[in-house]
């Protein structure tokens, strides 16, 4: 008999079976049919069908209850939430920092890393950091970022042109689909 089963592992979002306090309820049976009955009748009907009486809409008058398998309902709810979470894209931004005078070997090494990140589906934020008076070479920094974007063009495309923010010039690359 399901009527006396306890689901108190953790607080569930719905009142079920004997937790329902209203004397009269509107019940919805599996086939979509609804009727207003006493709580006692509703509990008996649920018991006969070997299902649970679940309070779906407590704020209405009378409260709306549904006769269903509550564990199966919770399982399907969790499954839906898991599917929704899995479908949301997780975009990670990987950062690569260069100096305005980064030599070719370091540059190529960092390009190789950026290509790896882009192939994994991550965005890449490349910034040229200007220390002290090196801000005078901002054209050099912009050229370096454009060269970086060109080197990664097979797997990634720039979101916008390089822009100067304070002492750093930033370029963001997104993976090509």
Describe this structure in words.
This protein is α+β, with helices and mostly antiparallel strands and 177 residues long. It folds into 2 domains: 68 residues, Roll (Ubiquitin-like (UB roll)); 83 residues, 2-Layer Sandwich (Translation Initiation Factor IF3). Helix content is 33%, strand content 27%. It has 4 helices and 9 strands, in the order ββαββαβαβαβββ. Strands 5, 6, 7, 8 and 9 form a 5-stranded mixed β-sheet that branches. The protein has a 4-stranded mixed β-sheet with strand order 2-1-4-3. α3 links the parallel β5 and β6. The radius of gyration is 30 Å and the shape is rod-shaped.
Summarize the structure.
This protein is an alpha+beta fold. It has helices at residues 39-48, 70-87, 104-119, 138-151; strands spanning 24-28, 34-38, 52-57, 64-68, 93-98, 123-129, 156-158, 163-165, 168-175. Strands 5, 6, 7, 8 and 9 form a five-stranded mixed sheet that branches.
- Proportion of β residues? 25-35%
Examine the secondary-structure arrangement and name the CATH architecture of the largest domain.
2-Layer Sandwich
Number of domains: 2
Rg, rounded, reads: 30 Å
Fold topology:
Elements lengths: L23 E5 L5 E5 H10 L3 E6 L6 E5 L1 H18 L5 E6 L5 H16 L3 E7 L8 H14 L4 E3 L4 E3 L2 E8 L2
Parallel strand pairs: 1-4, 5-6
Antiparallel strand pairs: 1-2, 3-4, 6-9, 7-9, 8-9
Key terms:
single chain, 177 residues, alpha+beta, Ubiquitin-like (UB roll), Translation Initiation Factor IF3, five-stranded mixed sheet, four-stranded mixed sheet, 4 helices
């Amino acid at each position: 008999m399901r009527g006396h089963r306890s689901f108190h592992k953790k607080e569930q979002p719905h009142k079920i079976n004997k937790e329902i306090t209203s004397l009269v309820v509107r019940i919805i049976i599996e086939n979509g049919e609804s009727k207003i009955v006493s709580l006692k009748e509703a509990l008996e009907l649920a018991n006969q069908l070997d299902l649970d009486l679940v309070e779906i809409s407590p704020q209405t008058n009378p409260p709306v209850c549904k006769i269903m398998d509550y564990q199966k309902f919770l399982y399907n709810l969790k499954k839906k939430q898991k599917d929704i979470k899995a479908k949301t894209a997780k975009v990670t931004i990987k950062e690569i920092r260069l100096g305005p005078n980064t030599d070719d070997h370091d540059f190529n090494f960092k390009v190789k890393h950026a290509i790896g990140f882009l192939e994994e589906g991550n965005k890449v934020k490349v910034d040229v950091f200007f220390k002290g008076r090196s801000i005078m070479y901002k054209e050099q920094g912009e050229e370096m970022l454009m060269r970086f974007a060109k080197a990664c063009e097979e797997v990634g495309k720039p979101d916008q042109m390089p822009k100067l923010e304070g002492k750093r010039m930033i370029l963001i690359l997104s993976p090509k689909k």
